[in-house]
Automatic annotation (TrEMBL):
<dbReference type="InterPro" id="IPR056178">
    <property type="entry name" value="CRF-BP_C"/>
</dbReference>
<feature type="disulfide bond">
    <location>
        <begin position="186"/>
        <end position="208"/>
    </location>
</feature>
<feature type="disulfide bond">
    <location>
        <begin position="63"/>
        <end position="84"/>
    </location>
</feature>
<protein>
    <recommendedName>
        <fullName>Corticotropin-releasing factor-binding protein</fullName>
    </recommendedName>
</protein>
<feature type="signal peptide">
    <location>
        <begin position="1"/>
        <end position="26"/>
    </location>
</feature>
<feature type="domain" description="Corticotropin-releasing factor binding protein N-terminal">
    <location>
        <begin position="56"/>
        <end position="180"/>
    </location>
</feature>
<keyword id="KW-0732">Signal</keyword>
<keyword id="KW-0325">Glycoprotein</keyword>
<keyword id="KW-1015">Disulfide bond</keyword>
<dbReference type="Pfam" id="PF05428">
    <property type="entry name" value="CRF-BP_N"/>
</dbReference>
<dbReference type="GO" id="GO:0005615">
    <property type="term" value="C:extracellular space"/>
</dbReference>
<dbReference type="GO" id="GO:0051424">
    <property type="term" value="F:corticotropin-releasing hormone binding"/>
</dbReference>
<feature type="disulfide bond">
    <location>
        <begin position="279"/>
        <end position="320"/>
    </location>
</feature>
<feature type="domain" description="Corticotropin-releasing factor binding protein C-terminal">
    <location>
        <begin position="188"/>
        <end position="309"/>
    </location>
</feature>
<dbReference type="InterPro" id="IPR008435">
    <property type="entry name" value="CRF-bd"/>
</dbReference>
<comment type="similarity">
    <text>Belongs to the CRF-binding protein family.</text>
</comment>
<dbReference type="InterPro" id="IPR035914">
    <property type="entry name" value="Sperma_CUB_dom_sf"/>
</dbReference>
Length: 323
């Protein structure tokens, strides 16, 4: 039987900081080893720290790190560090910029610093290629390739990451991380296992996902798709054919294109719809044709151990635990 503490930590460490960082000569993310206690301490300490308004927050950047505050972060290699990554996270209504303040690395020797627009874990990417506005190759910005031409990198959503390799002791770099208000957030990873959110797509042809990296009970309180606002609430087959719909997805990875579809919604309604999803990752995903203003409001909370045990016979639960 899976106890709550283990459930919470396993999915948190796997999806938040089961750091899949560089190996060998690759500039892409692979697997790496780090203790669960280290990961848990990174997550808790950073998310809860406030920044003094009168003074920029500064601290050293770790080889394996989580940054959820604005500030200036300096990495100095005490010995060769070939597999490093820092995960950056902001509030759902914010995006992140990473500024290169000073860089002293040897690109010709194989050093590099790369900012990725999103997160990469175990080969999976958030947002998925289907949901991100940029092609995949444009989401990787390598300092050694861009140099002084691009001293600042801006994310498209509330998460980003920096991964880097340093061969020589004494080499260093300093980054400033800032957050900016995003008036129409699209593609979000929730910092918390409970909360509420309203996703709006204002006549834009795009797909947006809200990812909750916990097993949760979710309640959809309002659902409005422009092309069906005048229709009564009823079932409608073939939601995908309508061009505007909302999906509930579940699974154990972060790539929404690889998650299990739980249900599709394509008829507007007002009034609560409840569902319990025992997966490590629960996603509310809205697909918009761009012809209408689409909106969905929902709240969510962490499932307790008794609820998880009760729904283990559910097919979605079997899928989540057996993959």
């Amino acid at each position: 039987m899976r106890v709550m503490e283990r459930t919470f930590r396993e999915q948190l460490f796997f999806l938040v900081l089961c750091l899949s960082v560089l190996k060998g000569d690759s500039r892409y993310i692979e697997n790496n080893e780090i203790s669960k206690d280290e990961l848990y301490s990174f997550f808790n300490s950073e998310l809860k720290r406030e920044i003094p308004e009168e003074l920029m927050y500064r601290r050293p950047l770790r080889c394996l790190d989580m940054v959820a505050v604005e500030g200036q972060f300096t990495f100095t290699a005490e010995h060769p560090q070939l597999s490093c990554a820092a995960f950056l996270m902001a509030e759902p209504t914010e995006v992140i910029t990473v500024d290169y303040d000073s860089v002293d690395i040897d690109c010709r020797a194989g050093d590099f610093i790369t900012v990725f627009d999103g997160w990469v874990m175990k080969g999976e990417k958030f947002p998925s290629s289907q949901d991100h506005p940029l092609p995949l190759y444009e989401r990787y910005v390598d300092y050694c390739d861009s140099g002084s031409l691009r001293r600042s990198v801006r994310s498209s959503q509330n998460v980003a990451m920096v991964f880097f390799r340093i061969h020589s002791a004494g080499s260093s770099f300093t980054l400033t991380v800032r957050k900016h208000i995003n008036p129409f957030p699209c593609n979000v990873i929730s910092q918390s296992p409970e909360g509420s959110y309203t996703m709006v797509i204002p006549q834009q042809h795009r797909n947006c996902s809200f990812s909750i990296i916990y097993p949760v009970a979710i309640e959809i309180s309002e659902f409005s798709l422009g092309h069906y606002n005048d229709f009564p609430k009823r079932s409608m087959p073939g939601c995908a054919e309508s061009g505007d719909f909302v999906q509930l997805l579940g699974g154990n990875g972060i790539d929404t294109s690889k998650l299990l579809p739980i249900t599709d919604l394509c008829i507007s309604f007002t009034g609560p719809t409840h569902m319990k999803i025992g997966c490590d990752n629960t996603v509310v995903r809205m697909v918009s044709s761009g012809k209408f203003v689409n909106r969905v409001s929902f709240s969510y909370r962490l499932l307790d151990s008794q609820e998880l045990q009760t729904i283990k016979l559910n097919n979605v639960e079997d899928f989540c635990f057996n993959t």
